[in-house]
Amino acid sequence: xxxxxxxxxxxxxxxxxxxxxxxxxxxxxxxxxxxxxxxxxxxxxxxxxxxxxxxxxxxxxxxxxxxxxxxxxxxxxxxxxxxxxxxxxxxxxxxxxxxxxxxxxxxxxxxxxxxxxxxxxxxxxxxxxxxxxxxxxxxxxxxxxxxxxxxxxxxxxxxxxxxxxxxxxxxxxxxxxxxxxxxxxxxxxxxxxxxxxxxxxxxxxxxxxxxxxxxxxxxxxxxxxxxxxxxxxxxxxxxxxxxxxxxxxxxxxxxxxxxxxxxxxxxxxxxxxxxxxxxxxxxxxxxxxxxxxxxxxxxxxxxxxxxxxxxxxxxxxxxxxxxxxxxxxxxxxxxxxxxxxxxxxxxxxxxxxxxxxxxxxxxxxxxxxxxxxxxxxxxxxxxxxxxx
Length: 388
What we know:
With 388 residues, this protein is mainly β. It has strands at 34-37, 42-44, 48-53, 59-63, 70-72, 83-87, 92-95, 101-108, 119-123, 128-133, 136-144, 154-156, 176-182, 185-193, 205-207, 223-229, 234-241, 253-257, 264-280, 290-296, 322-326, 336-337, 339-342, 346-348, 353-357, 370-376, 380-386. Strands 8, 19, 22, 24 and 26 form a five-stranded antiparallel beta sheet that branches. A four-stranded antiparallel beta sheet has the order 1-27-3-6, with no helix packed on it. A four-stranded antiparallel beta sheet has the order 2-7-4-5, with no helix packed on it. The radius of gyration is 25 Å and the shape is globular. The protein contains no helices and 27 strands. Helices cover 0% and strands 40% of the residues.
């Protein structure tokens, strides 16, 4: 039945005890809805329904049943706002992953590797990793072009078997891709991720797009087939535990050991700007004014896989930093430390580039100052409010 648009309503429930002292050896009750998470901390969301604000840098993750790893979306800690979460107490969490490695790209495939004897060791830090050897999809072939398409059909590619049912014992990465059409028929297929860990080529499901104007007049379904490549090559890696945050997140090295050779991985870490300093004075910035320092770059490295989310800039969206600098009465940007309002959010193995935005009262003859960015981690504050 209709309900009033507004009115006194019913207030939200008071913050509850997350871990009540009535439990054996539990800490003293401390109700409240704001919690600080240091870098590397994560908090499973207790069973129930919640309004969750993940703060400036934390992410809302779910435990992916396909890979057994925690999955964070590519808009995590970007969109902001309040999330409505229904949790079973186990499969959803809020995590501060700043300074921690969370994945890797394949820099070189190598050859001769065997899944059972290949290992990955991270230096520095105590993160743990599992390699994926072989099973990458390739050779997409449109075996039946179909007909009558007004919009490209949807293509669903089954994931590789999970660890318990996969011959490699570790599972894999699901492939994704899309079809293109010409004159009403499917003319090609492009991978956006060729995946990893496939023991054999799956059969994709090709479905007409629900918005296709021709769906009511008749569409002949197309068929697509794949082949599998990468036997003996490193085609992916799982970060099974990010470990403690790194003091310098850009220094981590992943070393592959085993029977093969020439394979290499580049770790990617979640990081923010923790300090911004002007080490060389700049001039022409306008008298006694504020100067904005922002950033460009900070995207994940592409690696060797030409069609993958990182190379196509589909895996992550960096958030620019917002840092305040000041010029003196003579319009000089003196040596100083910037005031960080937002350190930005970056998933990369290299620091972003600082960009100074000229103020409106600059004299047009600017000599840029020298800016250095320090990358790392910081604590964050989340809000965990019981929902009605």
